[in-house]
Design goal:
The protein is built from 24 helices and 12 strands. A 3-stranded parallel beta sheet has the order 1-2-3. A 3-stranded antiparallel beta sheet has the order 5-6-7, with no helix packed on it. It has a two-stranded antiparallel ribbon with strand order 4-8. α20 packs antiparallel against α24 and α21 packs across α23. The longest helix has 21 residues. It is mainly alpha-helical. About 50% of the residues lie in helices and about 10% in strands.
């Protein structure tokens, strides 16, 4: 067996979800076209959809990242040409003013107009839709995704969707029969797959269609208010489609083979697939992922702005940590808030460290394989992000130089300016500490049992040599907790965190003390006993 065939065999055995999805897609393609492998046939098309009704949040990025992981796995399994399209539904009507944008009063005047006809409240682009598209493109490019960005407005107005729109008009009655049973009585009375753009106001209208004309490719609708009958062409951007029908039309027109979506769209996937069958297409392979929740457990929303933005994550975390967050447990609802960032960073480096020690069979199940498209980095750092955070905490570090004094003593082989990735990690830790940790720090006085334990730890450290290992220190802290007869040793460590670090969670104390230094730790613990740290927090 050649190395190449051996690796393909390993990929076939992988249970990682991108490979599972890739195998499902391969089976679909093979069933539809048994001649798979012909280099002249069209690329297998992956699509992600985005509604630019508000600033793009991490959930939007996540769909692209996850789809790209499936695409990469599919490429590896089949060697077949693929293409990824990021589709923006920017011709959709502007339904609601987001809470997290400026110039809200100005935007209220443009309700129901296409997003690419709404002025940019940030005054940077020609429209609000263009602004949000540009923001998303900026971040997708930063992560080096290989994709084609497609604008709904451009495709409708240029006529690229015309042949598919004609097909929708031909099957108008059949499509209506599929959709109407899913609607309320009031909505049924005026539902139409086609949403005309008002010739006078430019608004996207939801109005009752009185007549369709397949030969002329027109619809006639009843104008709201005046009861005037107006006839418009369905082509060249004079109409757009209601979203479930629009989704099906897009699959048909573009020939989409794979698209994932949130669990909240499960019913829409079923309806759009039925419409696609009416048009003569075959539904793409799909994947239903769970939604992201904010820190309060509520669904994140572009209009509310209650989710983290991509900028906010990258202010405190690495690109790889964000990709790992998207990879992990896509079928489980996850809280997306600032506190998950440090954990995600350290989990990434843990996976990376494990990757280089794993046998080939397990490497393809490691998230790093999918984050780096089969070519993970080799850089593993000896200091975790959480350790850096807690070092910044006890130092009240305002700049990198303070942290580097301790880092250089702990890891002499790492010097500032010699490793750009680690330099960046130090900067991110400072950002997170000063902006997310420091404002919430609150020290407390130690309880009597904690005072006794702290004195025992000080005595141990005073009699320790400088070359004592972090494991020896950690073991001693454990033994002190047992000697003090804590029912739950976690309470002993929480006591150290709250009295010495001003927070309820913290690092492995052995590693932290080794990094911070024996003498510095003794000084810190003495301040805890004196109660002087309680007055040290400056915000």
């Amino acid at each position: 067996m050649t190395i190449d065939s051996q690796m393909k065999y390993i990929a076939e055995q992988s249970n990682s979800w991108p490979f599972v999805e890739a195998k499902k897609l391969r089976d679909r393609i093979t069933k539809l076209n048994p001649s798979i492998g012909d280099i002249n046939e069209k690329p297998v098309l992956f699509e992600t959809g985005y509604g630019p009704s508000g600033l793009p949040h991490i959930g939007t990025f996540g769909e692209v990242a996850r789809t790209a992981m499936v695409q990469n796995a599919f490429n590896y399994l089949t060697g077949k040409k693929t293409k990824l399209i990021c589709f923006s539904d920017d011709m959709d009507g502007f339904r609601k003013v987001p809470e997290n944008v400026p110039n809200k009063l100005m935007l209220e005047k443009y309700i129901d107009k296409p997003l690419t006809s709404v002025p940019d409240p940030f005054e940077k682009y020609e429209s609000f839709g263009s602004h949000n598209n540009a923001r998303l493109i900026e971040f997708l490019d930063k992560f080096n995704f290989d994709y084609e960005f497609v604008s709904s407005t451009e495709y409708y107005k240029s006529g690229k969707f015309d042949f598919a729109l004609k097909k929708v008009l031909i099957h108008y009655d059949k499509i209506i029969k599929v959709i109407l049973p899913t609607l309320g009585q009031e909505r049924q009375s005026n539902y139409s797959p086609f949403l005309p753009l008002c010739p006078k106001t430019g608004k996207v209208l939801q109005v009752k269609v009185i007549e369709t004309n397949v030969e002329d490719q027109t619809i006639t609708y009843l104008s709201e208010g005046s009861n005037e009958l107006i006839t418009v062409s369905i082509l060249s951007g004079n109409c757009k489609l209601q979203w479930k029908c629009d989704w099906a039309m897009r699959w048909y027109a573009l020939g989409v083979d794979y698209e994932m979506s949130g669990k909240d769209l499960s019913e829409s996937v079923i309806l759009s697939s039925k419409i696609l069958n009416i048009l003569g297409g075959v539904p793409p392979t799909g994947f239903s992922y769970e939604l992201f929740l904010d820190g309060n457990g509520e669904k994140i929303s572009k209009s509310k702005g209650n989710g983290l933005s991509i900028e906010e994550w990258l202010r405190y975390g690495t690109q790889e940590s964000l990709s790992l967050f998207m990879y992990s447990n896509p079928k489980r609802a996850k809280r997306l808030f600032f506190d998950v960032i440090p954990k995600s960073i350290d989990e990434y480096f843990s996976h990376l460290k494990n990757y280089h020690n794993q046998e080939e069979m397990k490497k393809m199940d490691n998230p790093c394989w999918h984050i780096h498209n089969g070519k993970p980095l080799r850089e593993v750092f000896p200091v975790s992000f959480n350790l850096l955070l807690n070092l910044a905490s006890v130092c009240h570090a305002k700049n990198e130089n303070i942290l580097w004094e301790y880092i250089s003593n702990y890891v002499p082989e790492i010097n500032k300016g010699e490793n750009s990735e680690f330099d960046e990690l130090v900067k991110l830790a400072l950002n997170f500490f000063n902006e997310r940790v420091l404002p919430n720090k609150k020290y407390r006085k130690p309880k009597e049992i904690e005072k006794k334990g702290i004195k025992m730890l000080i005595e141990f450290l005073e009699n320790s040599k400088d070359d004592i290992s972090s494991e020896e220190i950690q073991n001693k802290i454990f033994s002190i907790g047992k000697e003090l007869k804590y029912e739950n040793l976690k309470d002993w460590f929480v006591g150290l965190y709250e009295t010495a670090l001003g927070q309820s969670n913290g690092p492995r104390m052995g590693g932290f003390i080794k990094l911070f230094g024996i003498k510095s730790t003794i000084s810190l613990l003495n301040k805890v006993l004196e109660g002087s740290l309680i007055f040290k927090v400056k915000r």
